[in-house]
Every structure is written in structure tokens, then in C-alpha cells.
Amino acid sequence: MSRHEINHVAITPVAFTDPPLLNAVGVHEPLALRAIVEVHTASGLIGLGETYGDAGHLELLTKAADAVKGASPFDVGRLWSVISGVLDGTASGSRTGLMGPETSGKTIGSVVAPFDSAFYDLQGQILGEPVWSVLGGKHRDKVDFSAYLFYKWATHPGAEEDRWGQALDPAGIVRQAQKMVDEYGFKSLKLKGGVFAPEQEADAIEALRDAFPSLPLRVDPNGAWSVETSVRIGKRLGEALEYYEDPTMGLEGMSEVARRTGIPMATNMCVVETGHIPEAIRLNSVQVILIDQHYWGGFRPSLNLAALSKVFGIGVSMHSNSHLGISLAGMVHLGAATENLTYALDTHWPWKDPSEDIVSTADFQFADGAIRVPDKPGLGVELDREALGRLHEKYLSSSIRTRNDTGYMQSIEPGYEYVAPRW
Ligand SMILES: [Mg+2]
């Protein structure tokens, strides 16, 4: 029996303030949900993971928590088989509000992930080494992030205007980009599209290109466009894009857009589990895969995916959802340990209220669009119990239990319907 045997797991759902960010399925609700997973050892250590906080996901996490008791933090390679065993066919259907197909593989990966994070955090603490070191060493001293621009309202209905203000046209997007670049120093820009007519969104990309001629640009319409629309806009934007993220749904459509435009196609929607990879390779559907420790099963499976991408000459970037500091720390460690991470990582970090978190992120500050890779043992973040209690209270006092961007939009604009492709 390991002295560091897992003897307790705590799962705490939390809610934090989120601005009205528009996307292809609706608009972000006033609160975003996360679950904080604490894995305790008999030796008194605590490993941390952060994941989705939706009600259906919490149920699966609870089952997984029982299954990992008695394990050693070094049993991380067995997490997938142990956890998928107890989920026993319940891991299907949408449980996280993420866009794109919710396959059972993706769901299992999203349940395994916070435990993988906590186990590596524990390994690092036991060994006195940062997580990137336990994962095999770092390939860089700082990890670059991209600005993640959104069309947005000035405010949630009835609330005060947030510090970012309104962005509903190309000028608003350029203003938002300027503020983000000024404050964080980002050297890449990504626009979340699929909100307005594709021509208007192409105008916004061209306005960004004119305002920031040296910065690489990406657009991500989340599959809101048909193949024909994706090809038309792709041909117009051509060289302006470093990659074209999920303009259309599905491997066949992505393959056709790639062939007809010659622009590298990126995805976090049509390749979301290993089972999708053979067909994606056969069709040459994607040239960049966005890894994400939160649904690929954690750090090790994400590194495996990056290694597989290298075999096939596919580039690697990183996906993001609204997140707190444990996720940010994990993204930095994984980003440091991934040899072929060829693009700046996505992050929703600037959209968060800096006063709201469940850990101190003093060692994870942005400078010149990047975060310096830290040297403290484990993930390098420690739970602030008082802050965790506050955000848990916020969760308890709200009625949101599952992310529902479409339902929230319909409560404001009753005629709104989710259609894909919309254009
Ligand atoms: Mg995406």
C-alpha cells in the first residue's frame, strides 16, 4: 500500500461571473460553471483538477471519485480504464454544454481529466518537481497565448456594463482587440465567429489585419457555415488567416474546404476523441488539432495526441473554455511539455473577473502575451478555501445547473433558434 494512497475526493461545483459573449449557439449566461476536484492522499497531500460544472457531469465525477479511492497518484496510466469501467454506458449524450459532438469517448475523457490533473499535481508534490518536469521536461520557458475576441453586448440585460463594453461590428472588435493587446501583450488574435453574416465577420478579420498587420489571425465560426460559404469566405480571407477553425461541421465538409481553399483547417469539433483520427487522416480534413486537457483525458492523453499529430504532420494548438486558475496552470504545464505546440494557445482568461478565483495565480501572470513556466512543485497553485466557499455559494444561490447558451438567448430574444449551418 502506498503511503500516498488516495483516501478522499471532494468535488465542489462553483460559479463565476461571465460576460455576454456571443457565439454560434447563443450567448454566455451571467455565470459560468466549473467543478473543482480535490484528491486527498493518506499522507496529507491534495492534488487539484478543474472541470465542467454541469449537473450531468457532476454525477459522472462522483462515480469516478469512488473508483479512484485506494489508488496511488502514480497509477495515472490506469485512470482511463478504471473510470470508463464504472461509467458503464452512462457516458453518452451532452453533459458539458460544449459545442460539437458529445461522443462517449469525449465524455469519458472529460471525466478522467480532472483526476489526471490531480494525480500529476500529487506526483509533482511528492517528487518536489513541477508537473511539466514529471511529464518529461519543458520545451519552452514561456507559453504563448492568443487573444480570444468575441462579439458581445455591452451588458447582460439589467446589469451594469462590464469593462469591455459592446462589440457588435468590425470597429468594436478592433477596439476590443486593442484593449486586449494593450493589457496582455497578445501576439495572435482569434475571433469567435458564427454570430453575424459571414461577410460582416470577414470584414472584421480584414479590419484586424489592417489594424494589426504583424499579428497572425484565426476565425472560428463553430460550424455555423455551409461548405460553400466556408469556401467563399476562405478564398476571400486567404492569406490573412494562419488557420481556419471549424468553419463547417464534419470531417467531409472540412476536407472539402481544405482542398478548395488551401488554408490549414483547425478543429476542436470534428476530432474530439482518438476514434475520429483515422477518418480525419484519410480525408485530410484537419491540418491543426486543438488539444485540450479537459476532454482528451488529461495531460498524458493530450501529449499522446500531440505525438500522433507529429507522425501525420498535423500542427497542434490548444482549445479553451471559460476557466479558473487550476485550468490555467494546467494549460501552462501542458503547453511547456508539448514539443510540437506550434501555435499560441486559446484562453478565455481576460473575460474573467480578476477578483474571482479559487487559487492564487500570482505565479501565472501574462507578460507579452505569454506566461512564464513556473518551477514550484506540482501545478504550483494552492486552494484558497475561503474563495472556494464564496464561488460555491454563488453556485448554490444561482439557478444555473447546466450551460445553456441557446436557452439564455431565447429568454432575451424569443424568436432565436439554433440552426446549423446558419449560413
Ligand atoms: Mg473552436
Briefly summarize what is shown:
The protein contains 13 helices and 15 strands. With 423 residues, the chain is an alpha/beta fold.
List the topology elements:
Blueprint: E1 6-17, E2 22-23, E3 26-27, E4 31-41, E5 46-52, H1 55-68, H2 79-87, H3 104-127, H4 131-134, E6 142-144, E7 147-150, H5 170-184, E8 189-192, H6 198-211, E9 217-220, H7 227-237, E10 241-245, H8 251-261, E11 265-267, H9 277-283, E12 288-291, H10 299-311, E13 315-318, H11 325-337, E14 366-367, E15 370-372, H12 385-396, H13 405-412
Helix pairs in contact: 1-2, 2-3, 5-6, 6-7, 7-8
Bound molecules: magnesium ion.
Overview of the molecule:
37% of the residues lie in helices and 17% in strands. With 423 residues, it is of the alpha/beta class. The radius of gyration is 20 Å and the shape is globular. The model has no long low-confidence stretch (mean pLDDT 96). Magnesium ion binds at residues 220, 245-246, 268.
